[in-house]
Please model this.
Amino acid sequence: MRTRAERAGEPETTVGTRERIVRTASRLMQRQGYDGTGIKQISQEAAATLGSVYHFFPGGKQELAVEAIRHGDREFAELLTGMLASAEDPAEAIEAAAHTLAGQLRQSDWVDGCPVTATALGTAARAPDIQRAAAEAFARWRGLVEAKLRAAGFAEGDAGDLAHTVISALEGAELAAQVSRDETPLRLAGAHLAQLIRAVRNTSS
Amino acid sequence: MRTRAERAGEPETTVGTRERIVRTASRLMQRQGYDGTGIKQISQEAAATLGSVYHFFPGGKQELAVEAIRHGDREFAELLTGMLASAEDPAEAIEAAAHTLAGQLRQSDWVDGCPVTATALGTAARAPDIQRAAAEAFARWRGLVEAKLRAAGFAEGDAGDLAHTVISALEGAELAAQVSRDETPLRLAGAHLAQLIRAVRNTSS
DNA sequence: ACGACTCTAGAACGAACGCTCTATTCGGTA
DNA sequence: TACCGAATAGAGCGTTCGTTCTAGAGTCGT
Model:
């Protein structure tokens, strides 16, 4: 069922309670992790009540966390799609993506890292649902990079392998940058990934 | 003051209470994160009492977390030193390191990832001490890789830059492998890092 | 006008949290 | 032997946790 605001087709200025809860949960868990984020904090910052939270997510905190990860997944996938489209050459596009990520991370005062890592880490053993949602997110992002490489003429195997390393390296570099409060890891990862992509292109031609 | 067992020079079979607490805290926080790990759980699994924990760590949970990260730092530095010494060629050594990490991760049923990431993530904004200890760990590991590259003849700038990316990529690949419960990210990261190192060596010669 | 239903609202529950406190045991030194 | 500080031991503090519960407000078809 949709709320009045949604039915009226109002713009994003007013958003449904459920969506507000998911967005808030995603942002808070991204910053504080699963255990560091309380349901009450989520409901307060989302301007919702506990009743609403448990109405929309009868599965409780775990169900909410899964939805939060899926939200972060979609969010980053859109961002990545845009960044990959910024240049025809995949090496250039990925280096640009690294710089964009570095800028956003610095702008948030090194607080907003990967939207799924903090939530997934530490819950993997306890909550298979959360771990699975995080794995799906990684796989989706990898698929976007792979498609970009395939479109640029890379062979199927090379594209898949490179996509794995691109996502891993970006993820790790964002982590290192966040912990060190320094964008150098992301800058260097971007440059090295571009160099690696070009090296693989040359060896396979 | 040291305990009787330590003074007597007994082997690792008996270890002091303080060390036992630190090791347990490091292992638990590695798996469950900072907020997911309780002081009481640590004291129980370390076969110590709450009184002992607060006797050795009057700064409470935060002080204990800093010591836990430092412990993980030293532990991984030793592991990395050994892996880097396994081959003269740094490219081979790092690829071997990735494989070793993959094996250990799989062996722990994808539970024991990086010993500092889970603890540092989510506490960065709240606890500067913890964030600083994690940053120091990353810097130390990077220094080890840089020294290996320098010893193999890489120029200072190239070695430092590559070391950044090696640590970032290994970190991210371990994360991806843990979340996906699949060692492919670590295997590919090792192969690609070796390829990247060789490419840099050739361009600078 | 009216039941049916969705959603909002927040008090209250037991459990667990980090931490403080006092009491007790123990080994080394005077 | 007497003593002292290190270390152990755990009851209990106030707070917060995730969750449940009942009550009310808003909106629809009929």
In short: The two ends of chain A are 55 Å apart (CA to CA).
